[in-house]
TrEMBL record:
GO molecular function: aldehyde dehydrogenase (NAD+) activity
SUPFAM superfamilies in the cross-refs: NAD(P)-binding Rossmann-fold domains
Domain NAD-dependent epimerase/dehydratase: 11-215
Name this polypeptide is given: Nucleoside-diphosphate-sugar epimerase
Pfam families membership: Epimerase (PF01370)
A cellular component term, taken from the record's GO annotations: cytoplasm
Organism name: Microlunatus sagamiharensis
Upper classification of the organism: Bacteria, Bacillati, Actinomycetota, Actinomycetes, Propionibacteriales
Length: 307
């Protein structure tokens, strides 16, 4: 970790104009870091002191090598969720691994990858899920399968400390927010999107709590350790779950449905009712600050704005 007397760390953030990427960039700047904000289009990174916009394709080997040179950490937030399988494979897996290899070759100390809890098998009856739980199989959807594949590939990129941060549904206001804007729009417009098993688990985390962990690991506030109970394993690849307090699909869908003026359709059937365990993250000193009531209140406000 950079000393308090010296300059702050240099951190590369991919997708720095995105829902998570923009917020983690802000959090890094608040922690004294210099952020190299990687975006595809000029002028899309937030203009602020401590942030440098770098326009390019991180999957391009030459650009990747240039942007990571002299950096202390890299945070990867890009995955083209909803795109065709080949696009998710190329951008989410191959390009991310290429960037990780460039970071290793440049002597970068830490790579923090935004993974997802969708890599876990959360079939009915599985129960609670921790970082040692089984991953999805090849019959998973394109998102879960490709996110699993990039996690497994990053585990093979030796030479730097790698941290795979696995959030579930990410709540928080934003035009590009999947769970506060895009899914509520679908629920408003499409009756098929209003079907849920009411008591099924809705695992979630607020974006503000997620970026706290990302920024603390990237800046070394949560330092590498020999024991995974206290921090990511130095030189290893460590998965870590983040999640807020327990919630159900009824909590989420009823909040959105009431706000947009539609009726939910509650179905019977098997569903995952376990919890995403976060003991590892808590052992590192992380804890969620946003309670479910506040997150649902914000969700309702975002959903009402769509009417």
């Amino acid at each position: 970790m950079t000393s308090e007397q010296g300059p702050g760390p240099v951190v590369v953030v991919t997708g720095a104009n995105g829902f998570v990427g923009a917020r983690v960039s802000d959090a890094l700047v608040r922690r004294g870091a210099t952020v190299r904000a990687v975006v595809r289009r000029p002028g899309t990174a937030r203009a602020q002191e401590g942030l440098e916009e770098h326009v390019g394709d991180f999957g391009d080997a030459a650009f990747a090598a240039q942007v990571v040179e002299g950096a202390d950490a890299v945070v990867t937030t890009v995955h083209p969720m909803g795109s065709a399988l080949d696009v998710q494979q190329r951008v989410g897996v191959e390009d991310t691994v290429r960037l990780a290899q460039a970071a290793r070759d440049a002597g970068v100390a830490r790579l923090v990858h935004v993974s997802t809890a969708a890599v876990y098998d959360r079939s009915p009856g599985v129960g609670d899920v921790d970082e040692s739980s089984a991953l999805v199989g090849d019959d998973a959807d394109a998102y879960g399968a490709t996110k699993r594949d990039v996690d497994l590939a990053l585990a093979e990129v030796d030479g730097l400390t790698r941290v795979l941060v696995r959030p579930p549904a990410i709540l928080g206001a934003g035009d590009s927010s999947v769970w506060n804007t895009l899914r509520p729009t679908g629920i408003r417009d499409d009756e098929a999107e209003r079907h849920r098993v009411a008591d099924a688990t809705f695992a979630w985390v607020h974006v503000d709590d997620l970026v706290d962990l990302l920024a603390d690991v990237a800046t070394g506030r949560i330092g590498a350790e020999a024991d995974v109970a206290h921090g990511p394993v130095a030189g290893g690849c460590t998965a870590v779950n983040v999640a807020g307090e327990p919630a159900t699909q009824r909590d989420y869908l009823q909040t959105v449905a009431d706000a947009v003026g539609v009726e939910p359709v509650w179905e019977d059937g098997p569903a995952w009712t376990g919890q995403l365990e976060t003991g590892r993250a808590r052992g590192w000193g992380w804890a969620p600050r946003v309670p479910l009531t506040d997150a649902l209140g914000e969700l309702a406000q975002c959903s009402r704005a769509l009417v």
